[in-house]
């Protein structure tokens, strides 16, 4: 077995060594999951619900330890990490409501009774990126388990620690062995095997568009089900009639949260030209005020980037010709730090406007009127989220309907609420996670006709 070092991105110190699973072990785990699924799908809905609640309670009991582990592994601020562990608990509680509510239809037909069932798929493979190791994992495994599937989960090589701990907590909570297995390893080995192994019936992937398209193509060979969450280039649209002070004060948190390593980051701020200068004046102190530093510190608002390689990738977006309006702070010393950075792009083709930076870099640009704002917002292959700031409710609704994105917020920057569906238009992804239909995405609909004559 090969081992990988896990690095704390705020200190560059090794925090753990993790054994990486190879192809043969992945195959063995998938086979165990397939066998465990035979009994798991027969567990009575109420009992499956109870086990998921116990899993949620085990996460709650371990919440502070999970959060501290995420701070050490991923450099997330302790405030964010507590929210993330709490989100796993909440998604599990929400999922616990699903087995008993996985309702089919009774459809009026001639000559008999017609009913539909939502059957589990079998083994589900969940591939998780490094930016939100806990929540993104739970959005897959919670509803998948609730629907009667077994789950194999591959965390990102950079951030496996909390996923490994969640696997232990599932067992401690009483989930049967092999119903939920965590397999740390390489994407090209473990993740790829989820795609090619015929017993894996669905792959849930969150990560880059590049790998996502390969996964979709690979799954096509077996007509394998797939859900993709592939990042974004979301617009934060600020109209002249908005509460400008609030829009400017919150804009940094809409993009710099998690150091910008967020698929929902509002990395393009579109401001109506008549208030453009005023907005920038208000934005500058807000950006300079973002507290960047030791993520373990209670009032830190932004930590480091995940790795040295990723910091290089982010830094490459700022070319010598790039107009940087202003930057925020960054600590000295070890750690993969990058300051909050506000740029004024020259042309619509600038990379900083067309590509996902996945770091604390935001582009601010002017628009003329509502139609122009919608045109610019939609001038991207992505379509995940976005914000609209205005005091005109009619405009808020018109623009919400016109922007091609899966998750919009008006006078707010929230994207992910576990009660509501989450996912992207266009190349931001395929399918939806969370929300009232979350378990359905892990089932096949079966229609049964029973003759009465
Ligand atoms: P990535 O390569 O897409 O990795 C995401 C996950 O997929 C990781 O678990 C990775 O495993 C796995 N993976 C990689 N290659 C695979 C393959 N051939 N088959 C199956 N699984 C595979 O993302 P990245 O390289 O970490 O980040 C690159 C860029 O992607 C970022 O800068 C950002 O723009 C975007 N991104 C978006 C999101 C999002 O939330 N939508 C998340 C992360 C990254 P390993 O652990 O071995 O890499
Ligand atoms: Mg990669």
TrEMBL record:
Q: What are the Aldehyde dehydrogenase domain coordinates in residue numbering? A: 3-448
Asked whether the keyword Plastid is assigned, the reply is no
InterPro entries, per the entry:
Ald_DH/histidinol_DH, Ald_DH_C, Ald_DH_CS_CYS, Ald_DH_CS_GLU, Ald_DH_N, Aldehyde_DH_dom
Q: Where is the active site?
A: 229
GO MF? oxidoreductase activity, acting on the aldehyde or oxo group of donors, NAD or NADP as acceptor
Protein name, please? Answer: Acyl-CoA reductase-like NAD-dependent aldehyde dehydrogenase
Q: Which UniProt keywords apply?
A: Oxidoreductase
**Could you say which protein family the record assigns here?**
Belongs to the aldehyde dehydrogenase family.
- Please give the Pfam families that the UniProt record associates with this protein: Aldedh
Question: What SUPFAM superfamilies does the entry give?
Answer: ALDH-like
Give the highest taxon in the source lineage: Bacteria
């Amino acid at each position: 077995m090969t081992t990988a070092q896990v690095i704390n991105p705020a200190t560059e110190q090794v925090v753990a060594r993790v054994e990486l699973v190879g192809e043969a072990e992945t195959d063995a785990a998938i086979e165990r999951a397939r066998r465990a699924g035979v009994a798991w799908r027969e567990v009575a809905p109420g009992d499956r619900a109870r086990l998921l609640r116990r899993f949620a309670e085990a996460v709650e009991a371990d919440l502070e330890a999970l959060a501290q582990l995420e701070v050490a592994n991923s450099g997330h601020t302790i405030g964010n990490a507590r929210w993330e562990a709490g989100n796993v608990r909440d998604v599990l509680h929400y999922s616990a409501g699903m087995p008993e509510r996985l309702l089919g239809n009774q459809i009026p037909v001639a000559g008999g009774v017609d009913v539909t069932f939502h059957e589990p798929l079998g083994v589900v493979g969940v591939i998780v990126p490094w930016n939100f190791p806990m929540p993104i994992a739970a959005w897959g495994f919670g509803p998948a388990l609730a629907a009667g599937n077994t789950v194999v989960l591959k965390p990102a090589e950079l951030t496996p620690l909390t996923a490994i701990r969640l696997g232990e907590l599932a067992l401690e909570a009483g989930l049967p062995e092999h119903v939920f297995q965590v397999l740390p390893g390489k994407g090209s080995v473990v993740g790829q095997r989820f795609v090619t192994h015929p017993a894996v019936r669905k792959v849930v992937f969150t990560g880059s568009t590049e790998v996502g398209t390969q996964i979709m193509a690979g799954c096509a060979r077996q007509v394998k089900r797939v859900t993709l969450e592939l990042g974004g280039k979301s617009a934060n649209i600020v109209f002249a009639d908005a509460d400008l002070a609030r829009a400017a004060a919150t804009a940094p948190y809409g993009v710099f949260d998690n150091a910008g390593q967020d698929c929902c980051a509002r990395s393009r701020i579109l401001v109506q030209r008549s208030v453009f200068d005023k907005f920038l004046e208000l934005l500058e102190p807000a950006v300079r005020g973002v507290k960047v530093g030791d993520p373990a510190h209670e009032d830190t608002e932004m930590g480091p980037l995940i790795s040295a390689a990723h910091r290089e990738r982010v830094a490459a977006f700022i070319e010598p010709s790039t107009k940087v309006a202003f930057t925020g702070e960054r600590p000295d010393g070890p750690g993969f730090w990058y300051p909050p950075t506000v740029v004024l792009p020259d042309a619509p083709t600038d990379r900083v406007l067309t590509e996902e930076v996945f770091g604390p870099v935001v582009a601010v640009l002017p628009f003329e009127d509502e139609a122009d704002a919608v045109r610019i917002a939609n001038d991207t292959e992505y379509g995940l989220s976005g914000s609209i700031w205005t005091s005109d409710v009619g405009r808020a609704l018109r623009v919400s309907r016109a922007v091609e994105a899966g998750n919009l917020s008006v006078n707010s920057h929230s994207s992910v609420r576990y009660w509501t569906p989450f996912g992207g238009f266009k190349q931001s992804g395929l399918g939806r996670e969370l929300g009232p239909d979350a378990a359905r995405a892990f089932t096949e609909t079966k229609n049964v006709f029973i003759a009465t004559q």
